[in-house]
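Record format v2
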Amino acid sequence: MSSNLHQSGVRLLRMLGRHAETVMDVYLSGSVDETAAEPGVISKLTDAGILWRPDDGEGLRLTRSVRALLEEGLKDERNRQINANVGSALATIKTLASHYKEARSHSDHSAAEAYLADLSEHVYAFTENLRYSIRVLWGRINNEFGYVGTISAKIRENELAQSQVSELLNGLELFQFSELGEIAADIRELRKLLVTTLQETLSDCTQELSVVQARLLELLGRFRQIQGRTRLLKGWLLYTDMHPDYEPMDHVAHRKVPMLFNRAEAMLADAHVDVHNQSQEQELMEMVARIKSISRLGNVSAAKAAEANVVLSAAEDFDIPENPLKQDVEDYFVAVIDSGKRQSALEYLNEKALPWDSESWIYQVIGGFEGLSEEHKSYFELEPLGEPHPVYTGNFIIRDVELWLS
Amino acid sequence: MSDVNVSPASLVGHGALIERLLRGEFICRVTDEDGWRALKSPAVRERIETYLNQINRTVASAGEGEVFFCGYAQLGEAERKVISSQFKDICQALIPLVEWLVLVQEASGQDAPLTEGAPVRLTELQARVEETPAFREQLAKLSQYRLFGSTSNNVDAQMKLVFKRLVELGYLSRPNLEKQIYIATGKLDYLYEVIRFIDETEGLNLEAQAEIATQRELL
């Protein structure tokens, strides 16, 4: 008998393998395209219970068990099927346990063994199914119901998943371990199956399901928030379209300003450099060094700009060939030649009551002296009068200059 | 003794953060992840708060505690004036910003409006806007608001200007200057909160109105 079963099982699997293309086409499209498929293949698959016709007018579909096998094997996330029917599984388990006990008490060992095998199969199938359901739920949570496009669809999917979770949880509450314990009594095999295995799995699953439930609620909240924001924006546009004169009320005029609108004015400007901070000296020096190179570049462009200016205003520049200050300096030099004496520049300025500022006068005198050709320069001696800077050594403050013939 | 040494040192560590707050910037995960993390830590936030309190400032937060900004600790006449003018600014910015958010959402065919951390690819968005006359019209309309101030008729110039302004205003950040990829900042979440506040306080029922309008469209 068992070799018979084995053989027909192998035959069935082979048939699946041989017609894998057709089966997958049906899996993906939902029903068989009967015009394209070979009639022989179709009838074989239908006879083997792989395909079935739900209604006369309907196309041929994959049977539930084949579909479930593929969904599980392919980890297809579209799989929404969750078997939450805990009640019937529990009833089956109880019934089989009673069969087993009866066979045992009649010392019908072969029957007892068969029942026990059957019972184990059911218990394991039940726990596996439970874990599978949880896995499916997690899968859906983890990709945030990515298999549907819109937020509203996601919200509906989430609500479906939530109802499945509560159904599963309600089903699990049906398990009364005191009752199962009584059924198992002191039979070791039964205790192991009904009490130890089931209890462990169930408490694990219950815990996990409550985590799943919390995550689903959290996700739902997020979806609702996203949906809410979209609606908020649309609503705002609609409202302002309908009421073009609308302006928000002055929500900050109240005595108590909502924290949301309490925004301080930007107040911070960049800090200044402290040249007396020795710890920063190194860095500041480096910066200054860098500025130099940049300013040289700047000079080039400034010079270019100046050249451009000269071109534009060339006519004006020629208007000042006779700088009166320069003329007076020349007269001063001539006076020194005439008198042949040492003459202080400032005294000369005062004597002649010239209109120049003393500082620019002295500059112009020094400039005039330096501007002479080497030959002419050697006829004169110029001595600056003044004193060294009281604080910074190396600086000499010129108060006056004296000029005489050498 | 060690306490005295530790706290100024750690404040120095957050100097840049305090500066950003005092410059009126919004601190979120996108704009300044380190600063955001620092403000999330109660101990650091407390220290910064103590510091800011000395100049009548406080750390304020929005967007479920994900966005931080600087507010006044106590409100006098002068502070109220500032707040009042800032409120007017944000109210004037609401319509252009909302129109832009809706345009981005519709043009990129997304379900969710932009929120903190969401990327916007300018070139992709621009291609979609250029393809569709309705989007082009919307962009032309919104880019002319004073907030953006575009005078151009060209989609490329309008788009670039709007994005440039949004970066200046702190609603977008551009992590890589060589790429036209922008990231929405937490200030957008602040904006949603402002709209929600106005909606709830004035009882505008914006969401319900949008819902009714959508259902009418579906029918």
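Residues 1-9 of chain B have pLDDT under 50 and may be disordered.
Chain B touches chain A through 54 residues (CB under 8 Å).
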